[in-house]
Design a protein that fits this description.
The chain is built from 2 helices and 2 strands, in the order αββα. The chain is an all-alpha fold and 139 residues long. A two-stranded antiparallel ribbon has the order 1-2.
């Protein structure tokens, strides 16, 4: 039995493991970022009161100017902050319409003429086909 055990041990395969080489690790710097910031909005508390011993400042608001037309009731004129953009918008809209109308009219006429010509050719071709079919039936 000794010889048999020896033969089994000799037949067992062996693995030769290579020597491990030292691998250097690279260093990656930590990422940085510019974090957005803002100046916080200061909101006064809801229970804010005047300091003791002070009086509120009295301010006078001027009345809005009024347009007087005899048959109509007085019409208040809006302030310049409202009137300026309103006038600019109205003038821009009228100018755009005035410029665009002839251009659109010209395009519309060209499209109408083009379509009418196509319809006319289609009708002529249709009539020719009918005439040729009728003449072939007669013979």
């Amino acid at each position: 039995m000794d010889g048999c055990n020896k033969r089994i041990v000799e037949n067992i395969p062996s693995i030769r493991i290579p020597i491990v080489e030292q691998i250097e690790t690279i260093s990656i710097p930590l990422p940085t970022a510019d974090v957005p910031s803002y100046v916080p909005l200061v909101v006064p508390p809801s229970d804010l009161k005047e300091p003791e011993g002070t009086k509120p400042v009295q301010t006078e608001e001027l009345p809005a100017p009024v347009l007087n037309l005899p048959p109509l009731p007085p019409i208040p004129i809006p302030p310049a902050e409202v009137l300026g953009p309103t006038v600019i918008t109205a003038v821009t809209a009228v100018a755009a319409t005035t410029v665009a109308t002839p251009i659109i009219q010209d395009i519309k006429e060209r499209i109408t003429k083009f379509l009418n010509n196509k319809i006319k050719k289609w009708k002529e071709n249709r009539k020719k086909k009918r005439d040729s079919l009728q003449s072939s039936k007669k013979t």
